[in-house]
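queue> pop job 88
queue> type: inverse folding (structure -> sequence)
queue> payload:
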């Protein structure tokens, strides 16, 4: 990424818990996990494929 933007993100508590667990199992920060998942979804949408 050439430029980064900061945002405030409100998540339901159960989604936050799930994302934090996914990040821990992938050895990523919560921020990195969210960025990773958004990029995967973006790439899938750009390719016209369904997400895994």
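queue> result:
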């Amino acid at each position: 990424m050439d430029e980064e933007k900061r945002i405030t993100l409100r998540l339901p508590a159960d989604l936050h818990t799930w994302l934090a667990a996914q990040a821990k199992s992938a050895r990523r920060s919560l921020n990195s996990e969210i960025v990773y998942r958004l990029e995967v979804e973006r790439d899938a949408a750009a390719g016209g494929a369904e997400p895994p």
